[in-house]
Amino acid sequence: MSKPRLVLIGNGMAGVRTLEELLKIAPDHYRITVFGAEPHPNYNRILLSPVLAGEMTLPEIVLNDREWYAAHGITLHTGRQVVAIDRGRRRVIADDGSEAPYDRLLIATGSTPFRLPVPGNDLPGVIGYRDIKDTDEMIAAAREHRHAVVIGGGLLGLEAANGLAQRGMTVSVVHLGRWLLDRQLDETAGRMLQRALEARGLNFLLGRQTAALLPGAGGRVGAVRFGDGAEVPADLVVMAAGIRPNTGLAENAGIHCQRGIVVNDTMQTFDPRIYAVGECVSHRGIAYGLVAPLFEQAKVAANHLAGYGIGRYAGSVTSAKLKVTGIDLFSAGDFMGGDESEEIVLDDRPAGVYKKLVIRADKLVGGVIYGDTTDGPWYFQLLREGRDIGAIRDRLIFGQAFAGG
């Protein structure tokens, strides 16, 4: 009998990781076809910021070269976007009119950058920051232009700002929040990070709302105007104000979507022949943007595609171990705390070290670390396992070695 056919839409990290897991446990189960909208094989999107900063090259961030696909008998279509899923005929249709039949379909279309709905957001020189094409555009702009504005003070925005500054641009970061990385850090750690990055030449405009992008010479973007009427020059504007699950293809095919493609604990969609993983997915109402949860999803999806049927994805407890321009940061859980929780804080700003642990009922429920993040994985393990820390409470802030964990 001929092998069943598996089609993967999306050649990114989550989808291809699912194939890697599948090939480990059922290497000959499917005839596999992959469609990728970008003209590249699978690459590590996390490493785009070192490419932008000139610390790495594009070939160095490729995860699976074309020879890998060929060695595993995978038909790879790059630079070809799937525009429709015909669930009745069980086929996908690409933008060049070609079709591929499937017995099982895996959707991993990822996410798209959120573009602020302001006048001028379509001017030349206004881009998102999501893929190799965006990175190439920023590198090219840095050769010819001087002033860059990055909208968004999250991790992606700071990485873009650092990379552009490394390439000689004058960079201003505009952020609506009161401190940087306000989803990963508390205010103290966010302010410490801001001071460290200001010392490296970055400029920050916090609590500012972008009202319009203004054209400059030749019709290219020339300035950013804020809600209070103030303006800053900008030959390049990078939108890094968030992402949105890329669900259009699934929605048009009649697959249930709500803040992402809705999947159950087996990563199966409303249609039992169709699975989905990655940033395009909504699982129990949550869409994950960090790599670790996406890889956990990939393992479960592979288990079910292989026919074992024993894996379950129950959601992820997420932690963020971030390295922003050489500054180590860690956060996990409910690091902001509240009325029913207690905080243990170590604040040694002259040494560039800050720790805050949030405890509730003798259990660690959250934490944030700036500087020395050596004990981050241990704190995350305590949090994830829900262990009672009453016996080591007084020593907990000093780390695993001192607390005897």
UniProtKB/TrEMBL annotation:
It comes from the Bacteria. Keywords: FAD, Flavoprotein. Its cofactor is FAD. Pfam families: Pyr_redox_2, Rubredoxin_C. Gene3D superfamilies: 3.30.390.30, FAD/NAD(P)-binding domain. GO terms for molecular function: oxidoreductase activity. The keyword Cell inner membrane does not apply. Residues 5-301 form the FAD/NAD(P)-binding domain. Signal peptide: none annotated. Residues 320-385 form the NADH-rubredoxin oxidoreductase C-terminal domain. Belongs to the FAD-dependent oxidoreductase family. PANTHER family: NITRITE REDUCTASE [NAD(P)H], PYRIDINE NUCLEOTIDE-DISULFIDE OXIDOREDUCTASE DOMAIN-CONTAINING. This is Nitrite reductase (NADH) large subunit. It comes from Azonexus fungiphilus.
